[in-house]
Write a structure and sequence with these properties.
single chain, globular, 35% helix, alpha+beta, Muramoyl-pentapeptide Carboxypeptidase, domain 2, 4-stranded antiparallel sheet, two-stranded parallel ribbon, binds zinc ion
């Protein structure tokens, strides 16, 4: 029996392999692993606040207080924490709808300047040591609170949310985690995403990016850091 020649088949296989490599879908842009750095962003953090990627590497410079800060009291809260005016209508709507569901929220923290974040971080270092502080708090310039669009929420009359095992297991926390995106807020540091967000789970920390972007991030099912890397990767100052 004549031995079939393999050469044409091998040529065909090689051709198919190279074709499929050339036409394979591009690999999904994944977020880089968490690392500690101090890369200053080249960004308009006021006008373009929603697309500012802040993590353990990228940070803002020491920026002046935004000129449009208003008290969260204007959204019906009982405290005088500050947020940028662009946040206030959605923050009020969120609070009112929570209240209509029988849930009372309070703001634990909102705008924090570069200098104030330095104090906050130093406080966590004192309490937990440097390594653990970096898991639960941002170094100055790296905090979303410097944007004036991030808030920490808690149950009215309750303890600081980080003093609970999981605020999302309280009725207030569960409601906010479930509904915040409808009001333009994203949960920046979801449970189980520590390797991609670079911070421990924070069920109380929400950043306002507007309803359209919040819906897109929610639908994508990825943390904001991942979504921003995929759509608006950070640009460092030259
Ligand atoms: Zn926060």
């Amino acid at each position: 029996m004549r031995r079939p020649t393999l050469v044409p088949w091998l040529v065909l296989l090689a051709t198919l392999a190279s074709w499929s490599l050339a036409h394979a879908p591009p690999e999904r842009t994944e977020v880089p692993p968490c690392a500690y750095g101090d890369v200053v962003l080249d960004v308009d953090h006021l006008q373009g606040h929603a697309l500012v990627l802040l993590d353990t590497t990228y940070r803002l410079p020491d920026t002046p207080d935004p000129s449009d800060l208003v008290r969260v009291r204007e959204a019906g809260f009982a405290s005088d924490h500050l947020v940028r005016a662009v946040v206030i209508d959605d923050l009020r709507a969120l609070r009112e709808d929570a209240e209509a569901a029988g849930l009372a929220l309070e703001v634990q923290s909102a705008y924090r300047s570069f200098a104030y974040q330095r104090q906050v971080f130093a406080g966590w270092v004192e309490r937990l040591g440097e390594a653990q502080a970096r898991r639960v708090s941002a170094r100055p310039g790296h905090s979303e609170h410097q944007l004036g669009t991030a808030i920490d929420l808690r149950t009215a009359g309750g303890p600081a949310p980080w003093d609970l095992a999981d605020w999302a297991r309280t009725p207030e926390g569960a409601w906010v985690v479930q509904h915040a995106h409808r009001y333009g807020f994203v949960l920046s540091y979801p449970a189980g995403e520590e390797a991609r967000t670079c911070y421990d789970y924070e069920p109380w920390h929400f950043r306002w990016v507007g309803r359209e972007l919040a819906a897109a991030v929610h639908d994508a099912g990825v943390p904001l850091r991942v979504w921003l890397w995929q759509h608006h990767p950070p640009q460092a100052l030259p």
